[in-house]
């Protein structure tokens, strides 16, 4: 009897991670690099939810999408967009199939961890003026002091006038900073040399914003008043107006290539701009229009998807009802939920890649790697699979079969954010769509430094996500 070829059998039967750079030809690598250029531009224009919505509308218009408010009816091939409260965005291309028979749906989020100004943020201490902040999303607080921060957002003045603010992005703009203690005064003290704990607390996240007082002896807080004078002269803002403002401190750094080979991008807000950009491009470039395709950019994922602009909001149902009516179907709730039940969906969000410096927290068998492709997460959550939906085995198979048709789409399947059981975890938007009886699976890009002021992603994984989303829309 001939000896069995186990080497061949091993190749046939076992799962191996691929390194994209070893699989792609030069042409595909070039495409991925050029795709990343567009993404970096987007990152620089879209550091906040409002800015992302605005940049998304621009992409929509450039690709022939019309504002749904200006459309009387919808037919096969029509492309529309809807911006919800300037903080969430939906794009749809109408298929041949009735919408109640389902659609393809990709949802990603456009909010990123940042520092919001408090409602009464301005104060003076030791002849310096500061803004108090309240962090938004899960951050490691020690990462935010001593980096240059920009201030983005809007203030609503008396009478409702909207004043947009964007300071710190232009190289000639001033920036703002949270201070930290010098190491010389932050070392072990006490008789036993015990280490004094000086962890950065939420109330320490105060932005230094000025130091020149007004020239007047009788004013109590002279530097604070000087800041107010500046803000009033420049924007018409009074101290009271901060309560009706959405002002976010974000890193002023631009997106940059990282590494000698420029294979990586470091930037603020990869989570989840990277999936958002890949998804909108995939929709705009996808060809098959048999079935209606929907791309949603959602707000408030980082704080649990609560609120009028988050994934739990009924504005999504309203939008589907609108699509139904404009395309000649009844917009009743039964049809809306029929459409959800018959839909196939991807929750496009980032996950963690195995960082060689912190390997111990990962389940190395199922954890994603940077440069090894888009990551399908069968489930997220924490502990005993709490706070997650889990994609059905059948649906995961279906998506894998779609992806496998294109040899350039490299992907990895993971779960639990790649973490060891009971070692942390996290949730995203998939469960909120799954609760609407939708077939949905997470698929996104692995990152290093997730939720840090600057995060790292691979250009190869970004392009795989784009190709994967496109394949999903086209099949
Ligand atoms: Mn995310
Ligand atoms: Mn996040």
Describe this structure in words.
Helix content is 27%, strand content 24%. The chain is built from eleven helices and 23 strands. The chain has a nine-stranded mixed sheet. Strands 8-7-11-5-6-10-9 form a seven-stranded antiparallel sheet, with helices on one face. Helix 7 crosses helix 8. The longest helix is centred in the first third of the chain and has 20 residues, at 26-45. The radius of gyration is 24 Å and the shape is globular. The two termini are 46 Å apart. The mean pLDDT is 96. The structure holds manganese (II) ion (2 copies). One manganese (II) ion is lined by residues 109, 271-272, 301, 349-350, 428.
List keywords for this structure.
2 domains; 23 strands; Aminopeptidase i, Domain 2; Aminopeptidase; seven-stranded antiparallel sheet; globular; alpha+beta; binds manganese (II) ion; nine-stranded mixed sheet
Secondary-structure map with pairings?
Layout: H1 6-13, H2 20-23, H3 26-45, H4 49-62, E1 66-67, E2 79-84, E3 88-93, E4 104-109, E5 114-125, E6 128-136, E7 149-156, E8 162-167, E9 177-178, E10 206-210, H5 222-235, E11 245-251, E12 256-258, E13 264-267, H6 270-285, E14 293-298, H7 315-326, H8 333-341, E15 344-347, E16 351-352, E17 374-377, E18 381-382, H9 393-403, E19 411-414, E20 425-426, H10 430-434, E21 439-444, E22 446-448, E23 455-458, H11 459-474
Parallel strand pairs: 1-2, 4-14, 4-15, 15-21, 16-22, 17-19
Antiparallel strand pairs: 2-3, 3-14, 5-6, 5-11, 6-10, 7-8, 7-11, 9-10, 12-13, 13-23, 17-21, 18-20, 22-23
Helix pairs in contact: 3-11, 4-6, 6-11, 7-8
The structure holds manganese (II) ion (2 copies).
One manganese (II) ion binds next to helix 6.
